[in-house]
């Protein structure tokens, strides 16, 4: 497990539950760190009135898992059979007003990603697995930060933000016609 923080005020733990992730890249943890930090920094820049407290430290976790683990979570928490590519578990809802003691970090939540599903989807799309992983980490992180794609307008906003963040990393629009 790795953990890092930078000037953004975000501490991220990367938990590797399936060592097969390292077959894809020896820098897999660093990639996840870079994406979560980029999403956090971009959303802070985009939302002047976002509610981010400059003095507050935030925490999130990215769990790199196998399909079986994600399938169990998907069944237990969403009532859906089988694995999905990414699950995001927000620690607190918007309605939860929490006054943290000084110095304690605010937990955003967890992003869980299924290796087998990500491998299959990347192969089907003809893109590098690492690019697809970056997209899913960005997508999951945006969910932790309160974005969703339930309503059409919200989906457009979230997709545009994902596309802009990924473009800054040299990754093509994941929602483009070629995908």
Summarize the structure.
The chain has helices spanning 21-24, 28-46, 67-78, 115-125, 129-144, 152-167; strands spanning 2-5, 10-16, 58-65, 86-90, 106-114. It is α/β, with parallel strands linked by helices. Helix 2 (28-46) crosses helix 5 and helix 4 (115-125) crosses helix 5 (129-144).
Quickly list its features.
179 residues; alpha/beta; Collagenase (Catalytic Domain); 6 helices; globular
3D structure, described in words:
With 179 residues, the chain is an alpha/beta fold. 44% of the residues lie in helices and 18% in strands. It has one domain: Metalloproteases ("zincins"), catalytic domain (Collagenase (Catalytic Domain)), CATH 3.40.390. Strand 1 (2-5) and strand 2 form a beta hairpin. The longest helix has 19 residues, at 28-46. The model has no long low-confidence stretch (mean pLDDT 87).
Largest sheet: 5 strands, mixed
Helix content: 40-55%
- SSE succession: EEHHEHEEHHH
Mean pLDDT: 87
CATH architecture: 3-Layer(aba) Sandwich
Task: Give the strand tally.
Answer: 5
What is the general shape?
globular
Please identify the top-level CATH class: Alpha Beta
Structural class by SSE content: alpha/beta
């Amino acid at each position: 497990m790795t953990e890092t923080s930078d000037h953004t005020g975000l501490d991220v733990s990367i938990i590797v539950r399936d060592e097969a992730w390292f077959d894809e890249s020896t820098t897999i943890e660093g990639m996840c760190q870079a994406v979560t930090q980029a999403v956090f920094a971009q959303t802070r820049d985009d939302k002047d009135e976002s509610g981010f407290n400059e003095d507050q430290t935030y925490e999130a976790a990215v769990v790199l898992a196998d399909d079986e683990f994600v399938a169990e979570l998907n069944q237990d928490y969403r009532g859906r059979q089988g694995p999905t590519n990414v699950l995001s578990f927000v620690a607190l809802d918007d309605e939860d007003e929490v006054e943290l003691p000084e110095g304690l970090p605010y937990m955003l939540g967890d992003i869980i990603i299924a290796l087998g599903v990500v491998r299959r989807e990347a192969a089907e799309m003809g893109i590098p697995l690492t690019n697809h992983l970056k997209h899913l980490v960005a997508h999951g992180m945006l969910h932790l930060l309160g974005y969703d794609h339930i309503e059409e307008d919200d989906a457009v906003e979230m997709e545009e933000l994902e596309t802009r963040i990924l473009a800054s990393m040299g990754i093509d629009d994941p929602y483009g016609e070629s995908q």
